[in-house]
Amino acid sequence: MRVYSATNIGMKRKMNQDYVFASQDTVGNLPNLFAVADGMGGHRAGEVASSIAISYLGRHFQETFYNLDKEQAILWINDSIDAINKQIFKHEEVDALSVGMGTTLVIALYTSDYLLFGNIGDSSGFVLKNNHLHKITVDHSLVNLLVEAGELTLEEAKDHPRKNVLMKALGASLEVEADIFDCDPDVDGILLASDGLTNMLEISKIESIVNSSEEIEEKVVSLIQKANNLGGTDNISIAYLEKEKEGGKS
Predict the structure, then answer these.
(1) Which of 97, 99, 101 is nearest to 169 (CA)?
(2) In angstroms, rounded to a whole number, what is the distance separating the alpha carbons of residues 199 and 44?
(3) 93-110 in b/e burial notation, b at 16+ Cβ within 10 A?
(4) Of 102, 178, 173, 111, whose CA–CA distance to 140 is shortest?
(5) 161: cis peptide before it, omega within 30°?
(6) Is the pTM above the cut of 0.70?
(7) Taking each helix axis from N to C terminus, what angle separates 70-94 and 46-64, rounded to the nearest 10 degrees?
(8) 139/144 Cα distance (integer angstroms)
(9) Cα(14)–Cα(142) distance, rounded to whole angstroms?
(10) Cβ distance 86 to 53 under 8 Å?
(11) Do 237 and 194 contact (CB within 8 A), yes or no?
(12) What contacts 54, CB < 8 A, 6 or more positions away?
């Protein structure tokens, strides 16, 4: 089993507001935590909000996540997201320039007994199984809401002028509720990505790259390069876990 994560400024942004976390020091010794946070573009100090989210998660995971069963892990995700949201608002109280900041957050908690995703915003979580990439999370965006209501087609949603408007994000309101997804842990890979990747590359293209014979580091770099080649309109962040294949490397 191998993990690789990376973040890239893209081709259009002046700064990188994304942060990524992967518990690489525990690879091969479950549990593992992965997370991607995308500071809200157009808001002040988006990079501060995403940094708060990832810094808290990494520290909190190392200090508190010991032998939790699935139900306890779900509570851990919800409590973590609530604590991060409170920290964002607390930071705004002492730093006037950060008022209005926010971030998306997608989390994957993987153990030998369960695989959980937590999501708020429009960063995405996928699983790879039998060479097929399946999106697990649901985007909390205005456009996705319109698609689900039947008012927009998926094709119309791709280039909609309000595609980046979020209905949920950390820092957007005092009370937050993340979506939690309970998945079969028998998967071949776990991929988390900010929308800087998924807005640039079709799922089929991402799928073909993660199924290639390249090393895991090369796969992640290739995903970023191809997103940039298509315009790189946003920051791009990826956390990817690849399980050992029979007769292959971990």
Answers:
(1) 101
(2) 22
(3) eeeeebeebbbbbbbbbb
(4) 178
(5) no
(6) yes
(7) 140
(8) 6
(9) 26
(10) no
(11) yes
(12) 19, 20, 21, 35, 37
**Is there a contact between 125 and 191 (Cβ–Cβ < 8 Å)?**
yes
Tell the burial category of 118 from Cβ atoms under 10 Å away from its Cβ (0-12, 13-18, 19+).
buried
Give yes or no for a contact between 91 and 85, defined as CB atoms under 8 angstroms apart. Answer: no
What residue type is 63 in one-letter code? E
Per-residue pLDDT tens over the stretch 63-96? 999 889 999 999 999 999 999 999 999 999 998 8
**pLDDT tens digits, one per residue of 163-196:** 677 899 999 999 999 999 999 999 999 999 999 9
* Structure tokens, 33: 């935590």
For tokens 């690879």, name the residue: 27
For the record, the structure tokens of 242 come out as: 């690849």
* CB of 34 closer than 8 Å to CB of 127: no
Q: Where are the beta strands (DSSP E) in the chain?
A: 2-8, 18-22, 32-38, 105-110, 115-120, 124-129, 132-135, 179-183, 189-193, 236-242
Check if the beta carbon of residue 205 is closer than 8 Å to that of residue 226.
yes
Match 């909190």 to its residue by tokens: 60
